[in-house]
Write a structure and sequence with these properties.
This protein has helices at about 25-45, 50-55, 60, 65-70, 80-95, 95-110, 115-120, 125-145, 145-170, 175-205. The two termini are about 20 Å apart. It is globular. It has about 210 residues and is mostly helical. Keywords: DNA-directed RNA polymerase, Transcription. It comes from Cryobacterium arcticum. One of its GO terms (cellular component) is DNA-directed RNA polymerase complex.
């Protein structure tokens, strides 16, 4: 799913002037992990509501690239990797709330698991409900049980993935190109769901770094 968004190829010199050799992969990884750990520790230790709300809406004001510079290159099964993907999911929802809500509702219609319950969106799920869900999941990383927030994100991705696959079947004979696109999106959501679930397990074992 991250492939759907532009990711800067290098750190901003104005923001990291003190960092030498910023293209060193080891240094990039260290910065990603240190910033993610420091941010999460600071907010969770003292969850000021104003600070939390600014973080939830951070990319609305500053854009996704501001987060990408820090965390987009992190491995999926890591703290910065999890934060990066949560922000991407929220961006995807807010960019097309109506379309996302439609795919989510279709996923609920075909679901054979408890994923819709775990994700926790209001039913029926319209644009307003899907935007609220995105904010609740992100807010939960900073103020609630981190693993539960990741489980909700994983469930959301599985429901959306099921919705994409179901709609892809509708277009299979009439619009094969559209069907193929939706099938690819379904696979990306499935992969992202697996990554979130892995991060949740690592967090519960104090191994998510």
């Amino acid at each position: 799913m991250a492939d759907d968004f532009h990711k800067p190829t290098q750190f901003s010199g104005s923001k990291f002037e003190s960092i030498k050799g910023g293209e060193d992969p080891a240094q990039i990884s260290r910065i990603a992990h240190e910033t993610a750990q420091a941010l999460l520790a600071r907010v969770r230790d003292s969850p000021d509501p104003d600070v939390v709300e600014r973080l939830v809406g951070y990319t609305d004001e500053h854009g996704i690239d501001a987060v990408a510079e820090l965390w987009s290159r992190a491995t999926p099964r890591s703290l910065p990797g999890a934060l990066w993907r949560i922000y991407l999911v929220r961006l995807l929802i807010r960019q097309d709330a109506e379309g996302t809500a439609y795919l989510y509702q279709r996923g609920i219609d075909v679901a054979v698991t408890i994923d819709p319950v775990v994700a926790g969106a209001a039913v029926p799920t319209g644009p307003a409900e899907i935007i609220l869900l995105a904010d609740e999941i992100l807010r939960g990383l900073f103020t609630g049980d981190f693993a539960i927030a990741l489980d909700r994100a994983a469930a959301f991705c599985r429901v959306i993935g099921a919705g994409c696959a179901s709609v892809a079947d509708d277009f299979d004979t009439t619009e094969p190109g559209r069907s193929s696109e939706l099938t690819t999106r379904a696979l990306r959501f499935s992969t992202t769901a697996q990554e979130f679930a892995s991060c949740a397990r690592l967090w519960r074992s104090d191994s998510l770094e």
